[in-house]
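User: Can you write out an input/output pair for a complex, sequences first and structure second?

Assistant: Here is one pair. Inputs:
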Amino acid sequence: MMTIRTRNTLRSALAALLLAVAAPLLAHEGEMGHVPEDGSTVQGTPEEIGIHFDGAMRITQFDVIGPRGRVSLEDQPGNDPTEEYHVRPAGDLEPGRYEVRWRGLARDGHMMSGTFRFTVED
Amino acid sequence: MAWLSALAGVDAWTVAMILVAAGFYAGALLAAGAVLFRLAFPDLPDPERRAASRTGAIAAWAAIVLAVIEWPLQAGYLGGGNGAAAVDPMLLGMVFEGAQGTQLILAVSGLLLVQAILLDARRLPGLGHGLSLGGVLLVMLALVQVGHTVDEPRWLLGGLLVLHLLAAAFWIGSLWPLYRLAGHPAGGADAVRILDRFGRVAVFGVGLLVLAGVVLAALLLGGVTPLLTTGYGQFLIGKVLIVALLLLLAASNKWRLVPAFERGEPRAPQRLRRSIAMEIGLVGLVLLVTAILTTVSSPANG
């Protein structure tokens, strides 16, 4: 026989589970978009390269790697918390495939990283 | 498979972070568990009592060392995974000022307090228990500083994680003393009494562990689909499968091997020890998967 206490515990557990499914939480900062868009092809040097988050993120690494290795960047912001992180290439980008590698620290202490790619055409 | 692609981007630096994190979890939970086990079983035979205290103290020191090593490893990761970034004062400062720094301070303070478990042996039981329990509390607080349990509703998420961790710590902290007790001759009164009572306490502990874990996972993932489609969800399934194996072993101990031990069957101590040793191995695996979960994936981004 199930005791009253066991039955109450099971009911509470079930209620907690239902509540859990009914109210999914908003999780922390995620990537919302990239400039240029991931996988896109752009004509000529893009004016800016950047990333957009849905919460404040402290970017600690933001490297653009192209056919000739690491691209020099202008206006590299510091690593204050930001939702928008954009940089400008210091010179013209030659045609080819580019990869952006970034790392950062989210508000909740999670260390995050990601990559996105774009292609530059003449 | 999402879990494979999550691992594909893992470099040597991240592997080091995962291993150190797993070691830190093991040390911190073992230290906290030794305190809890001692409190739950005040009538442990002297050699086992001393062994539990010693294990807890050593585990706490190991966890302190690993917590301190995590700091430059995290700074190095943020700078792209290299040695220069690991000693960069700006990155070290950023890590220390954030949630990781709070975790480090709380963990080190708590683990130092856990050392009070040794005071017991010097006839200061009250003080030893009080201080070491305070240490356990700080260690638990440390473990809820980083990650999704700081999101709202923070008290619910943090509270569930603390319950989950307390139950896990108790289980982990019990394995070594139980392994030693199982080495006593079959049918020995001390060993029988404690193994039997552990079996009864463990049912509640394991229930709490599983229930808190399931509710927490449901809150963080928000549904069944991410469980199947994201790397985080798939690692979580892996963890649950290993825990299920652990539960099978625990059930077999409770209903088969411990009763055989109590009846004085000559081969029972050896079989019970082998089973507990397997549990220790599986716990190591669970902690490794947990470190992968918290290091290379997240419920938000897979």
